[in-house]
Amino acid sequence: MKKLSIEPIKNGPLKIVNQTKETLKDILFYDCQAMNLAKTNLICRCGRSNTQPFCDGTHIKYKFTSQNDLEEEILQVYDSKSVTVTFNRSICAGSENCVKKFPDIYTSGSNDWINLEKGTIEDIIASVEDCPSGALSYTLNKNDDCQLEDCQKEKIDIIKHGPIQVRGPINIKIEKWSSFANKTKFTLCRCGNSQNKPFCDYSHANLKDDSYTF
Ligand code: FES
Predict the structure, then answer these.
(1) Ligand 1 pocket by C-beta < 6 Å: which residues?
(2) What are phi and psi of 148, to 5 degrees?
(3) Counting beta carbons within 10 angstroms of the beta carbon of residue 111, is it exposed (0 to 12), middle (13 to 18) or buried (19 or more)?
(4) Can you give the pLDDT at residue 210?
(5) Which residue stretches of 11-104 are H helix?
(6) Residue pair 90/178 in contact by the 8 Å Cβ criterion
(7) Sign of the Cα pseudo-torsion (31, 156, 193, 91, in order)
Protein backbone atom coordinates (compact mmCIF):
# COMPACT_ATOMS: atom_id res chain seq x y z
CA MET A 1 0.00 0.00 0.00
CA LYS A 2 1.25 3.49 -0.79
CA LYS A 3 1.97 5.49 2.35
CA LEU A 4 0.76 8.84 1.09
CA SER A 5 -1.93 10.39 -1.00
CA ILE A 6 -2.18 13.94 -2.34
CA GLU A 7 -5.47 15.51 -3.26
CA PRO A 8 -5.62 19.02 -4.74
CA ILE A 9 -8.83 20.40 -3.20
CA LYS A 10 -10.92 22.42 -5.64
CA ASN A 11 -10.25 26.15 -5.09
CA GLY A 12 -8.40 25.25 -1.90
CA PRO A 13 -5.20 23.74 -0.53
CA LEU A 14 -3.39 20.50 -1.25
CA LYS A 15 -4.44 17.75 1.10
CA ILE A 16 -1.66 15.32 1.95
CA VAL A 17 -2.92 12.26 3.78
CA ASN A 18 -0.62 9.91 5.67
CA GLN A 19 -2.28 6.54 5.16
CA THR A 20 -0.27 4.76 7.83
CA LYS A 21 -1.01 4.73 11.54
CA GLU A 22 2.28 6.41 12.44
CA THR A 23 3.53 9.98 12.28
CA LEU A 24 5.98 9.84 9.36
CA LYS A 25 9.36 11.54 9.59
CA ASP A 26 11.93 12.41 6.93
CA ILE A 27 9.38 12.61 4.13
CA LEU A 28 8.04 16.16 4.42
CA PHE A 29 10.51 19.06 4.27
CA TYR A 30 9.87 22.80 4.32
CA ASP A 31 12.76 25.05 3.36
CA CYS A 32 15.08 22.03 3.87
CA GLN A 33 13.82 21.41 7.46
CA ALA A 34 12.22 18.02 8.16
CA MET A 35 8.65 18.18 9.49
CA ASN A 36 6.47 15.47 10.91
CA LEU A 37 3.78 14.26 8.58
CA ALA A 38 0.53 14.09 10.52
CA LYS A 39 -2.55 12.18 9.44
CA THR A 40 -3.93 15.06 7.35
CA ASN A 41 -1.84 18.04 6.21
CA LEU A 42 -3.35 20.99 4.35
CA ILE A 43 -0.65 22.76 2.36
CA CYS A 44 -1.30 26.26 0.99
CA ARG A 45 -1.31 26.55 -2.80
CA CYS A 46 -2.75 30.04 -3.20
CA GLY A 47 0.57 31.59 -2.13
CA ARG A 48 -0.94 33.84 0.55
CA SER A 49 -1.32 31.93 3.81
CA ASN A 50 0.08 33.61 6.91
CA THR A 51 0.99 30.22 8.36
CA GLN A 52 3.15 28.86 5.52
CA PRO A 53 3.46 26.14 4.46
CA PHE A 54 0.00 25.36 5.81
CA CYS A 55 -3.34 26.72 4.66
CA ASP A 56 -4.99 29.23 7.00
CA GLY A 57 -8.09 29.87 4.90
CA THR A 58 -6.76 33.06 3.27
CA HIS A 59 -7.52 31.56 -0.17
CA ILE A 60 -11.19 32.38 0.42
CA LYS A 61 -10.47 36.10 0.82
CA TYR A 62 -8.47 36.13 -2.42
CA LYS A 63 -11.03 33.98 -4.30
CA PHE A 64 -8.29 31.52 -5.28
CA THR A 65 -9.23 29.35 -8.25
CA SER A 66 -7.56 26.03 -8.91
CA GLN A 67 -8.78 25.88 -12.50
CA ASN A 68 -6.30 24.72 -15.13
CA ASP A 69 -6.10 27.46 -17.80
CA LEU A 70 -3.54 25.85 -20.06
CA GLU A 71 -4.73 25.91 -23.66
CA GLU A 72 -1.89 24.02 -25.23
CA GLU A 73 1.19 22.29 -23.88
CA ILE A 74 4.55 23.60 -25.05
CA LEU A 75 6.57 20.58 -26.11
CA GLN A 76 10.01 20.47 -27.65
CA VAL A 77 11.60 17.29 -28.99
CA TYR A 78 15.36 16.95 -29.58
CA ASP A 79 16.77 14.01 -31.49
CA SER A 80 20.23 12.61 -31.81
CA LYS A 81 21.45 9.30 -33.12
CA SER A 82 21.27 7.59 -29.75
CA VAL A 83 18.71 9.46 -27.71
CA THR A 84 15.56 11.58 -27.97
CA VAL A 85 14.95 14.16 -25.24
CA THR A 86 11.55 15.74 -24.74
CA PHE A 87 11.02 18.99 -22.85
CA ASN A 88 7.55 19.92 -21.62
CA ARG A 89 7.71 23.64 -20.84
CA SER A 90 4.26 23.50 -19.25
CA ILE A 91 5.53 21.57 -16.22
CA CYS A 92 9.03 23.09 -15.93
CA ALA A 93 9.56 24.55 -12.44
CA GLY A 94 12.64 26.54 -13.44
CA SER A 95 15.11 24.88 -11.06
CA GLU A 96 17.80 25.39 -13.74
CA ASN A 97 19.62 22.26 -12.55
CA CYS A 98 20.16 21.30 -16.18
CA VAL A 99 21.65 24.65 -17.22
CA LYS A 100 23.85 24.94 -14.14
CA LYS A 101 25.14 21.37 -14.00
CA PHE A 102 25.31 20.55 -17.71
CA PRO A 103 26.04 23.88 -19.44
CA ASP A 104 27.48 22.20 -22.52
CA ILE A 105 24.16 20.50 -23.24
CA TYR A 106 21.66 23.13 -22.01
CA THR A 107 21.89 26.82 -22.95
CA SER A 108 19.35 29.12 -21.30
CA GLY A 109 17.92 32.04 -23.24
CA SER A 110 17.90 30.25 -26.56
CA ASN A 111 14.95 28.67 -28.36
CA ASP A 112 17.09 25.85 -29.59
CA TRP A 113 18.51 25.33 -26.13
CA ILE A 114 19.33 21.60 -25.92
CA ASN A 115 22.45 20.46 -27.74
CA LEU A 116 22.50 16.68 -27.45
CA GLU A 117 25.58 16.29 -29.60
CA LYS A 118 27.60 18.25 -27.01
CA GLY A 119 27.03 15.76 -24.16
CA THR A 120 27.78 12.13 -23.49
CA ILE A 121 24.85 9.76 -23.23
CA GLU A 122 25.63 9.36 -19.50
CA ASP A 123 25.44 13.12 -18.96
CA ILE A 124 22.20 13.41 -20.91
CA ILE A 125 20.59 10.66 -18.80
CA ALA A 126 21.97 12.16 -15.56
CA SER A 127 20.58 15.59 -16.47
CA VAL A 128 17.10 14.19 -17.12
CA GLU A 129 17.13 12.21 -13.90
CA ASP A 130 18.22 15.33 -12.02
CA CYS A 131 15.28 17.40 -13.31
CA PRO A 132 13.00 17.81 -10.25
CA SER A 133 9.83 18.63 -12.19
CA GLY A 134 9.96 15.76 -14.70
CA ALA A 135 9.77 18.33 -17.52
CA LEU A 136 12.68 16.55 -19.22
CA SER A 137 12.31 12.94 -20.33
CA TYR A 138 14.28 10.73 -22.67
CA THR A 139 14.06 7.67 -24.85
CA LEU A 140 17.04 5.66 -25.97
CA ASN A 141 16.67 5.27 -29.70
CA LYS A 142 17.98 1.74 -29.84
CA ASN A 143 14.83 0.22 -28.29
CA ASP A 144 12.32 3.05 -27.98
CA ASP A 145 11.65 2.26 -24.31
CA CYS A 146 11.68 5.08 -21.84
CA GLN A 147 14.51 4.22 -19.52
CA LEU A 148 13.68 6.64 -16.76
CA GLU A 149 13.31 4.74 -13.53
CA ASP A 150 10.52 5.40 -11.13
CA CYS A 151 11.58 7.10 -7.91
CA GLN A 152 11.14 4.57 -5.12
CA LYS A 153 11.35 6.66 -1.96
CA GLU A 154 8.69 9.18 -0.98
CA LYS A 155 9.85 12.74 -0.46
CA ILE A 156 7.86 15.98 -0.44
CA ASP A 157 10.03 19.10 -0.50
CA ILE A 158 8.22 22.38 -0.02
CA ILE A 159 10.60 24.95 -1.51
CA LYS A 160 10.50 28.42 0.03
CA HIS A 161 9.44 30.91 -2.70
CA GLY A 162 8.99 27.94 -5.03
CA PRO A 163 6.90 24.86 -5.74
CA ILE A 164 6.38 21.55 -3.95
CA GLN A 165 8.70 18.88 -5.30
CA VAL A 166 7.16 15.43 -5.02
CA ARG A 167 9.00 12.16 -5.47
CA GLY A 168 8.17 8.52 -5.01
CA PRO A 169 5.17 6.22 -5.20
CA ILE A 170 2.37 8.48 -3.95
CA ASN A 171 -1.33 8.31 -4.82
CA ILE A 172 -2.24 11.59 -6.41
CA LYS A 173 -5.74 12.52 -7.42
CA ILE A 174 -5.14 14.34 -10.68
CA GLU A 175 -7.62 14.38 -13.55
CA LYS A 176 -5.09 14.71 -16.36
CA TRP A 177 -1.33 14.31 -16.50
CA SER A 178 0.80 16.41 -18.80
CA SER A 179 2.47 14.74 -21.76
CA PHE A 180 5.60 12.73 -20.90
CA ALA A 181 5.06 13.49 -17.18
CA ASN A 182 6.88 11.29 -14.72
CA LYS A 183 4.28 10.09 -12.20
CA THR A 184 6.85 9.57 -9.47
CA LYS A 185 8.60 12.93 -9.91
CA PHE A 186 6.78 16.22 -10.42
CA THR A 187 6.37 19.73 -9.00
CA LEU A 188 3.13 21.28 -7.80
CA CYS A 189 2.27 24.99 -7.82
CA ARG A 190 2.08 26.79 -4.48
CA CYS A 191 2.01 30.42 -5.63
CA GLY A 192 -1.47 29.99 -7.12
CA ASN A 193 -0.54 31.47 -10.51
CA SER A 194 0.39 28.49 -12.68
CA GLN A 195 -1.63 28.17 -15.88
CA ASN A 196 -1.21 24.41 -15.61
CA LYS A 197 -2.50 23.77 -12.08
CA PRO A 198 -1.95 21.70 -10.08
CA PHE A 199 1.52 21.59 -11.68
CA CYS A 200 4.13 24.33 -11.38
CA ASP A 201 4.93 26.09 -14.66
CA TYR A 202 7.49 28.57 -13.24
CA SER A 203 4.94 31.39 -12.98
CA HIS A 204 6.23 32.13 -9.45
CA ALA A 205 9.33 33.70 -11.01
CA ASN A 206 7.28 36.68 -12.26
CA LEU A 207 5.28 37.63 -9.16
CA LYS A 208 5.86 41.12 -7.83
CA ASP A 209 2.84 41.61 -5.54
CA ASP A 210 3.79 41.89 -1.84
CA SER A 211 0.72 39.97 -0.70
CA TYR A 212 2.38 36.66 -1.59
CA THR A 213 3.88 34.86 1.39
CA PHE A 214 4.96 31.57 -0.10
S1 FES B 1 -4.59 27.55 -0.05
FE2 FES B 1 -5.52 28.08 1.82
S3 FES B 1 -4.45 29.86 2.47
FE4 FES B 1 -3.48 29.29 0.60
Answers:
(1) 12-13, 44-46, 48-49, 55-59
(2) -65, 125
(3) exposed
(4) 85
(5) 58-61, 97-101
(6) yes
(7) positive
Instruction: Using alpha carbons, select from 196, 195, 169 the residue that is nearest to residue 183.
Output: 169
Mutation pick for ligand 1 pocket among 50, 54, 64, 194 (CB with most ligand atoms within 8 Å): 64
Query: What is the pTM for the complete model shown?
Result: 0.87
Neighbours of 61 (CB within 10 A): 10
User: Which pLDDT does position 158 carry in this prediction?
Assistant: 96
Which one of 10, 46, 190, 213 would you pick to mutate in the ligand 1 pocket, going by the greatest count of ligand atoms within 8 A of its CB? 46
Q: What residue ranges in 159-213 does DSSP mark as E strands?
A: 164-167, 171-172, 185-188
Mean pLDDT of 193-205: 96
168, 153 Cβ separation under 8 angstroms: yes
Residue 208: pLDDT over 60: yes
**Helix (H) / strand (E) containing 127:** helix 121-129
d(CA 200, CA 188): 5
Would you state the pLDDT for residue 142?
64
pLDDT for the residue 81: 86
How does pLDDT run across 123-133, given as a tens digit for each residue?
999 999 999 99
pLDDT mean across residues, the chain: 92
Report residue 7: phi and psi, to 5°. -125, 115
Distance 7 CA to ligand 1 centre (A): 14
